[in-house]
Amino acid sequence: MDLLFIVLGFLLLVFGGDMLLKSAIGISLRLNIPKIVIGMTVVSFATSLPELIVSVNAALDGHPDIALGNVIGSNIANLGLVLAITNLLSPIIIKPGFYKVDWPVMMISSVLLCGFIAFDGVLQRYEGVILFSFLIIFMVFLLKFQKPAVEEEVLEYKVKLPLLKIILFLVIGGIALWIGSELLIDGAVGIAKRFNVSERVIGVTIISVGTSVPELAASVIAVLKKEKGISIGNLIGSNVFNILGVLGLTAIIAPINIIDQRLLTNDIFWMLATALIVLPLSFMFVRMKLGWKEGLIQLFVYSIFIYGMFF
Question: What is the pTM of this model?
């Protein structure tokens, strides 16, 4: 039953996230919000809702290690698994914005999170406010100074949905996300107890990979369709949003008191390492390009991480 709960939870999270994304875009188009703003704010929030709902629900239900482990593991999976598989399927050309904005902001966000929780093992409410405020500042900066670069990453939204359909998607998506997160957390906690592993391990591995499935699916589909929009910036942006948006809002709603200290002594340093290694990889074989060789290295690093979690 625990495994069934996890599978159903994942399916409902993906379905609910897709419904809310369509609803959010529909509302934005009806309000005539510029497409670049839709792409940077509405879509970013909607695609990160599975991580957000799972982390908030876990924190409220008294499972802080799942709340934090979900984000840390998701960030590791985005670069060590999703980006690696994408690189194996198709090379990615790195744009100058990666070096000037994307990577530095990701590292600053990661180090900021590490600093907040390293000493007291708690992500306090005021620290959540700081993280979320940094996210708003970052978005304003992108809109003001990086608009031409960002516009290339924004999808074209053309179809305006009927109001009734928007409301229907909103209600169904919200219900699916909440039920999915409950099932996922219940199943994960059940498996942790059954196999005598910590909630931290389940959060950093199973749950985090599950909430990263939308990013993986989007990347693989883009490769298969040979779309030019495949960009490391999308995954970097997801990592930034996970830290500043997901953990920021989660801590504001319910401060995260870490139980398993390995989140602080091991996992968060893996998150920093997988973020850091992307920079030298972009110069290792072919300058400003990530291909199959870099993908194999990333996948090897991720495999070591997963092996170390269970053995």
Answer: 0.85
